[in-house]
Design brief:
The chain is of the alpha/beta class and 290 residues long. The chain is built from 11 helices and 10 strands. Helix 2 crosses helix 3 and helix 5 packs across helix 6.
Length: 290
Amino acid sequence: MTDYQDAWYQSEDGLRLYARDYVNKDSSINILCMHGLTRNSADFEALCRHLHPRFRLVVADQRGRGRSDYDPVATNYHPGTYVKDMFNLIQQLGLDNLVLVGTSMGGLMAMIMASLLPGKFKGVLLNDVGPVIEAAGIARIQGYVGKGAPVTNWDEAVAQARAINGAALQDYSEQDWRNFTRKLYRENDEGIPVLNYDPAIAVPMNEAQTQAVPPDLWFAFEALKNTACLVVRGETSDILGKACVEEMQRRKPDLQLAEIANRGHTPMLDEPQAIAAIDRFLEKIESGFR
């Protein structure tokens, strides 16, 4: 039994898109969670279990991931399109008093959304991402997205997931890896695990890095000047560098920061240190509604 409802909505270009809606009619704020490049709504299961007793959470499968339609035009797989999809989701579900939670690509989307609608959002959580993306991290991601060899069973899928993500999740047990892999893969009609995303999401990134990551997002970060903001960083992240975090803190002195031990790119937001920081962040925002 799940504790969320299925929410289906339409994109401007006619795709049928999906989100999990963890309904809570007593919540004073709504939380929109946006996953990273190759992930899906399952990434936030643990965080949603923790927060759902107090808040409504909506967790999207971006186009080409999870249960959302794949896009027949691969060049549409870029943050600008995803942001339009999120505005459609917000409008179609009538979401207000919103806090954005964005992991990696989802964090880029959150900053862009805040820049397009200044003052719209009550808070923004950036999970292991900032206005500057480290070149080494981009190169690593380009090296595996859409290029994985097919697997024939779940043991092979676990091994593949560990090979790609092992440096980021250094303290995972065998069971942790199995649980993690079940979120990344789905079974096809033959019962064989396949990655739960359209391999074509790699096309724009491989054609030009600026298609995957806007070249300069400081303008978008500046839009958060009067918005509560929490940055969660993996201590060995190759995407969000320490120099970038320091500049973010200089430009926004009230920025909240949690650095997570034994994590690279990205923390899963179920780590005790991350949970504690998120609770403090949301409690402060929620207090403004009392």
